[in-house]
Write a structure and sequence with these properties.
Elements: H1 8-12, H2 15-31, H3 38-54, H4 59-71, H5 83-97, H6 102-113, H7 125-135, H8 153-160, E1 161-169, E2 174-181, H9 188-208, E3 212-217, E4 220-221
Parallel strand pairs: 2-3
Antiparallel strand pairs: 1-2, 3-4
Length: 223
Amino acid sequence: MIKISTKYNEIINNEEIKTYIRMADESLLALGYTEHSFTHVGKVSHDSEYILRTLGYSEHEIELVKIAAYLHDIGNLANRIDHSQTGAVMAFRILDHMNMPPEDIATIVSAIGNHDEGTGVPVNAISAALIIADKADVRRSRVRNRDVATFDIHDRVNYSVEKSQISIDKDAKTIKLTLKIDTGISPIMDYFEIFLNRMLLCRKAAEKLGLKFILEINDQQLL
């Protein structure tokens, strides 16, 4: 495999990229969406790394998934609709200008372009890890609307989540998303109403990694 020439630290310290992430999140804020800024992409990067590192993937592949995770939502700068494909094209331009090897660019671009549940497919291990890490980031701190009385279903569900954790059991070949939800804020059924397609995509992503996906909410296995 071609040796990577653009490291993760170069990506996260790049001022151009920081601007795109910040302004993409500002666009989503104006639309009433949950937080998609540096906290989100940082957590997705961390969890993507955990998945591939635990499964024994190479440092090169781990570096690629961290970069893909950090860049995966920049397409929201143009529009929320088809943001995965827009983000993939933006990432291609950025990484090409940074002289990353074509094979690495192709891997990252395909992962970004396939991370959304509307059109996404886990085409490789990098995209699979990104999908799971992205869809698992459900938490109270992502809700930016502070007026509980005006919460929509997305606000209620995210605000109700007190704990969200990914864990892998290599012996059992499972990857589990564990959630603790305050059902006084949002019933568990609301989670499925808005996240069912995401969880089904996570199941496909887990299968790509040779794992079974498990969803556990309030100590009950639901998938």
